[in-house]
Design a protein that fits this description.
By secondary structure, the chain is of the alpha/beta class. The protein folds into 2 domains: about 160 residues, Rossmann fold, CATH 3.40.50.2000; about 170 residues, 3-Layer(aba) Sandwich (Rossmann fold). It is built from 11 helices and 12 strands. The strands form 2 sheets. The chain has a 6-stranded parallel beta sheet with strand order 2-1-3-4-5-6. Helix 6 links the parallel strand 8 and strand 9. Helix 5 crosses helix 9. The two termini are about 15 Å apart.
């Protein structure tokens, strides 16, 4: 079958969406399908650029590509599902979040407090409703995303999990005294919660934050303001081998993102048999972490996070048992590309 995967690219920013796209494409190729990833650059602002991207995708007809017919189009990200094709399906990673669940929050206050933002919100919701209802099948990459589609668009979708990039490579080693948090440095990931928590941690433990992003300078300044240079390290981008090593040797993982769509970090921690600390408003990770069994769920407050870190340190046997339970839970969920393709294509 000739399959096109339609998505968008944010130049110089790589994350879960990129791993999602390439993982799907690679597995479909392994099954003998002819696969092409078709993407266009996307700009989050200004409003005129978002609207321009919507219009471009609306104008795209994938019915014929230079004489080649495409049997199936799988649309992943806003606004790629605006394209035209008789056999398009949507597997939604997320919609344009600033006009949906982030509207009127601190993560979207600039957009939600002006007339231009109101206009964009109305246009996106209307266009999403029209284009998604043209799809032959609608899936979501998590229960959280599926719930948003139903809440805001009255559109039903099937949650479909997929595995992280390095699924078969994770391993476990005895714990060393550090908490690990690998993620892009951006406001929704809330690295500042972990940094502030380290001011309250009583155990002799450090925090290692991997990744890069627009908030690196702000976070480094916060570390210096709190005199935490000896307890918190920003180590920037790391290789896959380094990532696996940091997971394997840590005491536990912190993942404090706000209303996360899916959350590879939680799954990666489970694959490495490490306990995960998440927050009560962390979104999809709440589907995976059972507090006291596979990790700890706490309020998004530095003091509460500090107490959870100390709990892991002062009872490391229980922490290790939570990690083992997390691995067992992951293995019970049938998260595989084989399952993904079965749901997408049949």
């Amino acid at each position: 079958m000739r399959i096109a995967i339609a998505t968008v690219q944010v130049p110089f920013i790589r994350g879960g969406a990129d791993n999602h796209t390439t993982g799907l494409a690679n597995f479909l190729c392994e099954l003998g399908h002819e696969v092409e990833i078709i993407s266009m650059p996307f700009r989050f602002s200004p409003v005129s650029e978002v609207l321009r991207s919507m219009k471009i995708w609306e104008s795209e007809n994938f019915g014929n590509m230079n004489g080649y017919s495409i049997d199936l189009v799988i649309c992943l990200q806003f606004p790629s599902f605006y394209l035209k094709h008789d056999h398009k399906i949507a597997w939604i990673i997320h919609q344009y979040r600033p006009v949906y669940e982030l509207w009127n929050t601190s993560f979207s206050k600039t957009l939600s407090h002006n007339n231009e933002g109101e206009m964009l919100r109305e246009e996106i919701i209307k266009s999403d409703n029209i284009s998604l209802k043209q799809c032959k099948k609608i899936l979501a990459n998590s229960k959280t995303v599926a719930a948003r589609l139903w809440r805001f668009n009255n559109i039903r979708s099937i949650p479909l999990y997929h595995p992280p990039k390095l699924t078969t490579h994770f391993y476990n080693e005895p714990a060393q005294p550090y908490i690990f948090y690998p993620s892009r440095l951006e406001s929704l990931k809330r690295q500042e919660l972990l940094i502030k928590a380290m001011s309250f941690v009583e155990s002799p433990i450090t925090a290692i934050l991997a990744g890069d992003g627009g908030r690196r300078k702000d976070l480094q300044s916060l570390i210096e303001q709190l005199y935490l240079n000896q307890r918190v390290r920003l180590i920037g981008r790391i290789t896959d081998a380094e990532l696996l090593g940091f997971y394997a040797h840590c005491l536990g993982i912190f993942f404090g993102a706000y209303d996360e769509d899916y959350g590879y970090i939680t799954l990666e921690a489970m694959l490495a048999a490490k306990p995960v600390i998440i927050c009560t408003d962390s979104g999809e990770p709440l589907e995976f972490v059972v507090t006291g069994q596979t990790g700890l769920v706490v309020e998004p407050e530095p003091e509460a996070i500090a107490q959870a870190i100390d709990q892991l340190y002062f009872n490391q046997k229980a922490a290790a048992e939570m990690g083992k339970a997390g691995l067992e839970r992951y293995q019970s969920l049938n998260i595989s590309w084989e399952n993904v393709v079965q749901k997408l294509l049949y």
